[in-house]
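Q&A log
Question type: sequence-to-structure
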Amino acid sequence: MRLDGFGLFVDDMGKMIRFYRDVLGFEIKEDEDTSNVYLIKDGTLFLLYGRNDFEKMTNRKYEYLKGINGHSEIALYVDTFEEVDAEYKKAVEKGAEPILGPTTEPWGQRTCYIADPEGNLIEIGSFNKPFGR
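Response status: OK
Response body:
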């Protein structure tokens, strides 16, 4: 088995598509009234799945947190510290909720956090070198 990707169960598909497409630059081609979105971002499957549709498919009800949640994060990497600052600023200007402004951590990473419209945490970080090097 290998990790193929990850997904989010979403309440407002249109709002989430607009956020990931227009704020973070994900290439989403599906219409805003779709029940699920599958896309590849940097070789990783990213999925948005409508909560109601998933509940119908599995014939179960689930509990969902409201507001900012701390159950998981989506981590995005950029090559330089300057890009962390620039991407954070751009995302907040386009409507992302600011959580933690760009900060250089003791372990050498520059990182920041924003939240999407449904409260999922997104980290933008860098070790000031290209990914994997």
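Response note: The first strand starts at residue 5 and ends at 10.
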